[in-house]
Amino acid sequence: MAALLPVREQASGDGFFATRVDALVNWGRKNSLWPMPLGLSCCGIELMAMIGPKFDIARFGAEAARFSPRQCDLLVVAGTLTWKMAQAARTIYDQMPDPKWVIAMGVCSSSGGMYDSYAVVQGVDSILPVDVYVPGCPPRPDAVIDAILKLQQRIEREQPLKRVFALPEHVIEQGSGAWLRAPNSGVPKSASDLHPHDPRARRAIERREIERQGSGGGKV
Amino acid sequence: MSATAPPLSASAAVLGALEGVKCEVSMGRDGVATVELARELAHDALSRLRDRAGFEQCTLVTAVDHLIDNELGALAHAGARERYEVVWQLLCTTRVLGGRAERVRLRARVSESDARVMSCTDLWPGAAYAERECYDMFGIRFDGHAGLKRLLMPDEYEHHPLRKDFPHEGIEPDKLYRAWDAARRAAEPARDAGQERS
Hints:
Chain A is α/β, with parallel strands linked by helices. Helix content of chain A is 35%, strand content 10%. The radius of gyration of chain B is 22 Å and the shape is elongated. In chain B, the strands form two sheets. A five-stranded mixed sheet of chain B has the order 1-2-5-4-3. A two-stranded parallel sheet of chain B has the order 6-7.
């Protein structure tokens, strides 16, 4: 955890940490995700395998599955959600205390999957705010572990203090992958600082091209 | 697997029990005697088969929607036959026919405008669930059923999904959920405030 920098031991005999409140809170939250397993079909079996000793999400602090939504902060919708069950799923989500996150596990909960049917919710994002989608039918436990790791990276970038004081939060662009970059990477100063695959780098290069053509007397 | 050939005709027990009942008995391709009869006679025939022919289990109550038949397939029958067909299948655990426990199937046509038959829950209480499912999926009413309500779909649901004219993606599938959600939000507006993070 880069944000928790130990102050030099020589300076203080007993040792302490200097950090930001945001970083500390996020560190605590991301390493103690308690999943609420909403096992609705075969994905539920993979979810159980993930919690069990072979895949062992205890390594990431997310093994404490509780069957009371009051004790959970991670709703894993694992399987086919029907419209009849949607009310129960929404009630469970409402009963979970803030902050809370949602993983849509498997194609059924992500998009309805193969069930293009009158009875099935075509993607749980129509009733719940989903943070991570996991493809697969059902996804392997590794894939869901990857989702949890991605969610941890996202939680690292949240700003709980700003929410406490009702300040505007830094908006993460949809699809920009910004929440996967390091927390303190900040705003890049020039296009050369960016990773070449970053869409902003490409946009900056395009802009430079247009400017160069413009200065060369060509019509833009 | 038994090497016995499938029976060519209905057993004497079935024919004897149905003596005097206006019906048409044939042999299904699967070796199950099939009795076609008017829906008014179905309950009488079922009780005769139970009491006189020893069919002590009702294994199946369901329906068939012949909408496609009427429109495209059997044009000769178009309009002449009713749209739905209720199917019962009974099992006799003590008699063997063609190497298997004997079964018999009853089929009765019911019309779209008056889709109802007599319930057989007085003969086999266990048929109650099958009749509820049949009502839920096809909208066929079973007279005499003590608690005929939907089995799978929500109670307030307005359609019967296994009817052939029902689109598989549904008609406003989220209608009941949205109504519930709106009522919930109206009751507790504070709870959702600031909850929906992108």
